[in-house]
Amino acid sequence: MTPTGSPHSRTPEELATRAVAMLRENDLGGWTRAAPRLYPHQWSWDSAFIAIGLAHLETRRAAQELQTLFAAQWANGKVPHIVFNPAAVDYAPGPDWWGSALSPEAPAGIVASSLCQPPVHAIAAWRIHETAVRRGGAEADAAGNFLRDLYPRLFAWHRFLATARDPESSGLVTIYHPWEGTDNSPRWDGALATLTMGALPPYARSDIQRVGDATQRPTRAEYDRYRWLVELLKGARHDEAAIYRTHPFLVKDVLFSAIFVAANEALLAIAATVGADDDECARLAAWRDRGRRGLDERWDDDLGLCLDYDLRAGAAVRTRTVAGFAPLIAGGLAPARLHALLATLDSPAWLGHPRLRWPVPPSTSPDDPAFEPRRYWRGPTWPVMNWLLWWSLGRVGETARAETLRRASLDQLLSGGLAEYFEPFTGESLGAPEQSWTAAFALDWLGAG
Ligand code: 2M8
Which residues line ligand 1 (CB under 6 A)? Predict the structure, then answer.
């Protein structure tokens, strides 16, 4: 046996046992905490990834993870980024930050944030279905019923993103806050730096005590800006059109947008399975295609990456982060673009970097001036990004590369445990030691072997 408390697993079987135990431990009956101490609520994209892992254990429970989340969906289709667990009272920033009830779109009786996160949900729903169909029998029937039940909600969610979050019909989704995905990635530094700050109410944050190491987390100045942006959203009563007119942080996020493209493709498959009407299928296909064109316009030949676009500054965000590989996630690439992206991925700025402990992508390139190897999304490697790139490489037919990434990702977890993120050079596990989505990825990767 591995010594108690050690993150190390000796065998893939032991890793699988740990992953299952962790998902059960973090399960609060119908939904899963993103991490037991650091994130004791239901997070939107975490839940979708968790459902992909749960699909290997039980179709109904996997389906329930998404159904619980979508019970908090707003009337305009938005799926909130955090659904708060009323029992977890010592998490800060808590429900009092958000004032979601100021919006007539927010459902009564549910305490949730007013932001949203990348729409991995249709991808997860389709994978739950695929996994269940492979098992057959009652599992497959349960998955069919689940898709029929969730489809209208998924469609409303996608319509929200394609309209309220892309009024320009650019194919690219606009985000209002760094928390709509990759938190304190240096992608947002420029937009945050231009904010004119007003008076902030006093606030607490629980992350630093829980991680116990401030060098891994966003700085106070960054957190002040996060808080200020929430104040502005509340001031606009979370009204999308008002936010669009006044909000100082409006960024076309290529990672979010690429996930939306892939999710539209997944939702098209779901639509065909549940017999959705032709008009809805045509709209899903149009959103997918428009997204690919939008991403194509954000390609930067010099960096060999796809770049976010800051609408307020009217400029591309020239930071080398893992989000730059977004077109791989969107798929449907011209051969020359695929070739260019793979060349960047293999280069010393990324997987070819000589100091990497495992060939998995750091969240920010070590060659970028903003790189910090221990701080949150500014350098560490993240299993969630490994999973997205692994899945995407398989979809674009790069199966050998996908397999190398799957093995490296599993080696990282065998050595460092089911943590939230990892120092890219030493492999030290950082952040939450028991991150639910990491357990889900472990099960999905092990199942693909
Ligand atoms: C992180 O986000 C929360 C705020 O939402 C935080 O920084 O405290 C991010 O990594 C986010 O992408 C993730 O969904 C969440 C829970 O794992 O943690």
Answer: 34, 39, 43, 45-46, 179, 181, 183, 207
CB atoms within 10 A of CB 335: 7
pLDDT above 60 (res 3): no
pLDDT of 413 higher than 50: yes
Closest ligand 1 atom to the C-alpha of 207?
8
In this structure, which residue's CA is closest to atom 8 in ligand 1?
207
Whole-angstrom CA distances from 19 to 57, 62, 337 are 11, 15, 37
Nearest CA to ligand 1 atom 1: 183
Query: Ligand 1 pocket: which of 37, 82, 117, 183 to mutate (most atoms <8 Å of CB)?
Result: 183
pLDDT (tens digit, 9 = 90+) per residue, 276-316? Answer: 999 999 999 999 999 999 999 999 999 999 999 999 999 99
The encoded tokens of residue 190 equal 């420029």
422's CB contacts (< 8 A; 6+ apart) are: 357, 380, 381, 382, 412, 416, 428, 429, 430
25: annotated active-site residue: no
- Mark whether 183 is an active-site residue: yes
What would you measure as the largest C-alpha separation in the chain, in angstroms? 59
Of ligand 1's atoms, which has the minimum distance to the CA of residue 115? Answer: 5
Orientation angle between helical segments 121-135 and 254-274, nearest 10 degrees? 40
pTM above 0.90, yes or no: yes
Q: How far apart are the CA of 179 and the centre of ligand 1, in A?
A: 7
Give residue-wise pLDDT tens across range 110-145: 999 999 999 999 999 999 999 999 999 999 999 999
- Per residue in 364-373, pLDDT (tens digit) is 999 999 999 9
